Amino acid sequence: MGRLQGKVAVVTGAARGQGEATARLFAREGAHVAVVDLLDDGQAVADSIGASASFHRLDITDEEGWAGLRSSLMAAHGHIDVLVNNAAGILVGDILSLKKEAFEKLLNINVIGAFLGMKVLGEQMVAQGKGSIINVHSVGGLHGINGLGAYVASKWGLRGLTRTAAMEFGHRGVRVNGIFPGGIASPMAGVEEEPREVTNQRFVRQPIARIGEPEEVAYTSLFLASDEASYLAGAEIAVDGGLMSGRYEDFLPGAPAAMLAAKA
User: Fold this and answer.
1) What DSSP assignment string belongs to 45-86?
2) Side by side, which strands form the sheet with 82-85?
3) Could you say which of 151, 219, 231, 248 is catalytic?
4) Is 231 considered catalytic here?
5) Distance between CA atoms of 257 and 263, rounded to whole angstroms?
6) What is the pTM of this model?
7) Over the stretch 216-247, which tens digit does the pLDDT of each residue have?
């Protein structure tokens, strides 16, 4: 306990899923957490956390909204130490069917929204000479995924922005790193009503053969937010059950015994 004692942390998309899990964990570790979301459900999350959390309704694509958040937190606490750019959208559709307007809207949320957070709150961290920014990407920022062209493009774009920010901010005392979740049991995954054993069947070809939990992403954010990660900048951590290490082929040795037995 206390790994973030005395820090002020901003978590976007914190009304549910990974963001909510991160906000709750950060508060347990001693931070005051700004629960940031466009959804009013964030108020209930902040209320349930208690005095160590506050809800801030924000459209992350609105620069003035970010400036207002900065002013509010500085007036209340005098410093901002951590930003987790977690809020994101998804758009399903093959390239031939995607509409330009929908593509642009997703880029605005997933790339511009994170950019504005880094620009506005990062400026405050640079002025302080310390801070940690964590951008939540996706394994879609490490490879291609059919049917998710807009989403993948946004995550590759954010990946490049994260690396650049790490270079520009690092020598000023602010660490910028990225997390790349794989399949996570969150509202974006749309698996709430599905039995977990059914969901897990989609993950049998990766080393940890199950869907991930929001808390598993949150603990990685906790590490990057803490002083324990003081020598990490521009890091890319895949929280993906080993998905990006490769895909099991059941016709070759070394695959899980259950997979080989099923084939036999």
Assistant:
1) HHHHH-TTEEEEE--TT-HHHHHHHHHHHHHHHS---EEEE-
2) 53-57, 32-37, 8-12, 82-85, 131-136, 174-181, 236-239
3) 151
4) no
5) 10
6) 0.94
7) 999 999 999 999 999 999 999 999 999 999 98
